[in-house]
Amino acid sequence: MKPSLRHSLLAEALGTAVLLAFGTGAAVVNEQTHALGHGGVAAAFGLVVLVLIQSLGAVSGAHVNPAVTVAFWAAGRFPGARVLPYVGAQLVGALAGSGLVKLLATEGSTLGATLPAHGPGQAFGIELALTFWLMLVILRVTAGAKEEGLLAGLAIAATVGLEALVAGPLTGASMNPARSLAPALVSGHLAYAWLYVVAPLAGALLAVAFDRLLQLKPSLDTRSTP
């Protein structure tokens, strides 16, 4: 049975809340205790993405990311009528997750907000590149029969963890407008919020265009092989 829109939106809201609770929650815990380290925070993001894909993928696709939803629509793999409801559910879930994180954060915490380390120009380019590669991986490993396989989930989660590990100190490695907007709104760090909306969307759409270039076309040579 195909999940209804109501079930899908509930899954997207819940999934994005859990992403923020465990992902940015790990950043806040490390901020307070230094027990996890940067690698631990990156691992937390990768692990929670894997859990969400495996648990909610069959209900909503486990997008938990407006850039992913828009890119799937642009690729012709998601109905346009569901884009805005999905994005709305993701933003509501992200705000709920950041609200939970705020309960355990100390005064003045950024709540895991993503901020450029060396200026907005560099951060924009990095976030665009990170989201491009993440979305390209998603498109390639979820094609056809592989859409809900464990290996697809592992590949996507590994990509998130790897990119967070390498680029986290430079930009926060967001790749997700909802993941960045929610802590920015709740903590009041809004100066660079635009960057973490525009760059991931641009990177995801670029991945759609590149994915089309990688798609194999049937050979025009119909002669039988001797």
How big is the Rg? 18 Å
Number of domains: 1
Query: The biggest beta sheet, please?
Result: none
CATH topology: Glycerol uptake facilitator protein
The portion of residues assigned to helices is: over 70%
The chain-level mean pLDDT equals 93
Strand content: under 5%
- Which CATH C-level class is it? Mainly Alpha
CATH-defined architecture: Up-down Bundle
What does the overall shape look like? Answer: globular
CATH superfamily: Glycerol uptake facilitator protein
User: Tally the helices: what do you get?
Assistant: 8
Structural class: mainly alpha
Low-pLDDT parts are 222-226
What is the assembly state of the chains in this entry?
Answer: single chain
Order of helices and strands: HHHHHHHH
Q: Tell me the distance between the termini.
A: 46 Å
- Overall number of strands: 0
Keywords: Membrane, Transmembrane, Transmembrane helix, Transport
InterPro entries: Aquaporin-like, Aquaporin_transptr, MIP, MIP_CS
Protein name: Aquaporin
GO cellular component, one term: membrane
